[in-house]
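User: Okay, second chain of the day. Same drill as before: sequence in, structure tokens out.
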Amino acid sequence: MAPKRRRVDESTTSPPPPPLRTAKRQPVVVFAHGAGAPSSSDWMIHWKEMVKEALDAVQVVTFDYPYMSGGKRRAPPKAEKLVDHHLGVVKDAVAKHQGHPLVLMGKSMGSRVSCMVAASEDIVVSAVVCLGYPLKGVNGAVRDETLLQLKAPTMFVQGSKDGLCPLDRLKSTRTKMNCENKLHVVDGGDHSLKIGKRHQESTGVNQHDAEMEAVKAIAHFVQNSIT
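Assistant: Same drill. Structure tokens below.
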């Protein structure tokens, strides 16, 4: 007589299903200020809060460049001289939030230095976000060398009335860039993305709504870059 075959209880012997993996990962954002105002300015705090919420960031790190320290208003040095300090802040943030995607963001001069930092071989950058990139120098020449060296996906958020970054010149530069790049235009916005009252009244554009649209576009770009 053949021995009875034991019934296998599959509910107890089958391996558990693998854990679900979410496509969305919380980034750590290092946000650099512009030439004329520190990280404690109302503008920086406002955008820091908006970005942190929109990106569900684990942290938005802001800091002051050395020339801003001590409360004394001084002229900024050349952008190249700020790279080492900026990179140090980035490395500290990465060490604190290991495994989180890194996003570099900056306002005006801070965005230019962020692009320089992104070229470092010591870090892995998921995305770069430039708020009011200063494409034109003091003498009016186009400063695109740093942008042409970028490899990380890069987004520009520019005011349509920003004299330091004419949109036609930015368009020409973007066609020469080697990385994926996007542009979001704030209609009527100046170098700080602020819209004048006359423009708001004549077009019906609202500052708050325009900022929300910009932040929404940034969040979409960053999440696509991460995933």
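Residues 27 and 75 are 32 Å apart (CA to CA).

User: Thanks, on to the next one.
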